[in-house]
Structures are given as structure tokens and as C-alpha cells.
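Exercise 3.2. Students should predict the tertiary structure of the chain below and write it as C-alpha cells, then compare their answer with the key that follows.

Predict this chain's 3D structure.
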Amino acid sequence: MLHPSNRNPSPEEGNSCFKWLLYISNIIALVAGLALVLSLMIVMVNYKEYIELLGDNATWIIALIVISVAIIMVFIAIFGCCGVSSRNTNLLIVYIVIVSTLMVGLVIGTVVAWMYQDDAIETVEENMKEKMEEYSPGDRREGGLTMVWDEVQISYECCGIKELGDWGKYNPSYSRKSTITKYPESCKRNDSDSHPFVDGCLAKIDRSIKDNVWVIGGIVFTIILYLLISLLLVSITIMSINKHRRRLYTQEQQTLLQQELQAMPYRATTVPRV
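Answer key:
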């Protein structure tokens, strides 16, 4: 006797529309995962000096999180495509577990990041103090800390960490009493400008990040929405596969019963006369 779980279902089983949508969503997950890794590599290579200025530890933590999400999305795509193509409900259940875990992790990570954002700024501030000590006036090396500090101050129109007086506090070149200039030339718009920037760079960077927090939140929301849609599609697909298997099993049982009835020897029966 055949059992529905041991039979290979026909290719027509399930709802083809939902299965194709699931295929497309898995391809999107695969492309998005690879794009995340590629984008992270580009950022880490092109902006490594800025990363060093703001803090290596925090940056590598963010990089690890992004890579983990990307790897999970690739696994989601693999399990999803394999599960749909083979009509394997076990793979699709694993798919549901992975997607649910990622979704919960994203929600928890977003809440934790929001709660500890002030601590992250304090860590960046301490790292900027350390890097300020390494600033060397006149150093024009490409990618050096001096050039990075100058680019940050010019682009954000800021000076120092919290104020221009930070240069005299943390950098030996500007803390000597004999030093006339108490801050780098990059604290001014140009050489002829005698008025330096008064805002600190930390506040400008913090404001820039907060101005883009809705973009980051939108990306996270989009990922969570995609995961919810994927869960819906794979759940419908599993129900469709199971429904087809039950119908197929019922038909097989009816066929076997008919065969057994046909194989029984014919017995003539006589009706007794009253």
C-alpha cells in the first residue's frame, strides 16, 4: 500500500502561480545577498581610511552582521529553489525556519541598535581622540590619517571632535605654547578665510547618520516585508503540495479497492422462494 509521503508527486501538483512567485523571490534573495557582500567589499576598500578614523571594532561588527545576513539570504534562496523544484516539503519547512530566524534577528538587532546608538557615538568619539593624536601637519600621503581628517573637516565644514579647541588638547603639534596655529588649515574654507569652522565633526557625523536613519529603517522594513511575503508563499505551496498528495493517496486507495473487488471470484446467489 502506498503512502503519500513515499510517493513522488506529479509536476502538476500545487499552484504553479505561487511556485513561480516563490522562485522569483528566491532569485531576488540570492541576488540581494551577493549584492550585499559586493557592496560591503567596495565600501571596505574605498573608505578604509574613514573606517579607521571612526573605529575599526564597530565597523567590523557591522561588516560581520551584513555578511551574516547575506549568507543567510543565499541559503534561503538555495533551500527555497531546491524545495520548490523537488516538491520536498522538508526543505520548505527548513526554509520557513531560516526565514523566521532571520526575521526575528533583524527585529531584535534593529531594537538593540536603536537602544545603544548613544554608546556607539561615545565609542566613535574615543577612537577619534586617539586618531587625532596621530595627525601630522604637512603629511600629504594618500590615504593617511592626516588627509582623512582634512577631508572630513572640509566636507562637513567642521573642526575637531566637539570643538576646534580639541586640536590643542589631543594633538602635540597644536598644544605647544609656541605654536601660533591652534588648528589645521582644513578647519577653514580656504587659506584666505580667517574664520574657522566652529562646529565639531562628531556632531556633524552623528547628525548625518540620523538624517539617513529613515533610509536604513526603510531597507530593514523592506527586507522584513520580503521575508513575510516569502513565508506566505512557501506556506501556500506546502499546503498545495500536501493537498495534492492527499487527493492522490485517496485515488490510489480507491483504485486498489476496485482492483480487489474485481479480483474476487463471482458467486451466484439464489433467492429462496417463500
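Discussion points: The two ends are 45 Å apart (CA to CA). Residues 1-14 have pLDDT under 50 and may be disordered.
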